[in-house]
Amino acid sequence: MRPASTGSIRTPWDVIEDDEAYHIRVDMPGFSKEDVKVRVENASLVVTGERDPSKEDERWASKSYSKFKTRLSLPDDAHSEKITAEMRNGVLCLAIPKLKPEEKHHVINVEIV
């Protein structure tokens, strides 16, 4: 769960990990929760945002239209079905629980006919 760049460019997200989960903070100033979508697609977390300029003050609409999209690869121990998200003051906070050791090695027996 690390950004691809290792240079001095600051990404709009930060990741912290503890024993139970990965926590991601995404700075999205000016976006409301209605403007943002979060989904899991092919083992990646996809965060998109788009502000509709028609909802803005006409005097600023041409300068306030904005789109945001980022894709982060989920670690192997991410419990993607239990991700939670909260949006406050232009900051999206995501919690990605970790799979417990017994959940990581889920075995499904296939019947031979």
TrEMBL record:
Q: Which GO BP terms sit in this record?
A: response to heat
SUPFAM superfamilies membership? HSP20-like chaperones
Answer whether the UniProt record assigns the keyword Iron to this protein.
no
Keyword match Transport: no
Q: Where is the SHSP domain?
A: 4-113
On the tree of life, the source organism's domain of life is: Eukaryota
**Record Pfam families:** HSP20 (PF00011)
Keywords of this entry: Stress response
User: What's the family?
Assistant: Belongs to the small heat shock protein (HSP20) family.
Q: What is this protein called?
A: SHSP domain-containing protein
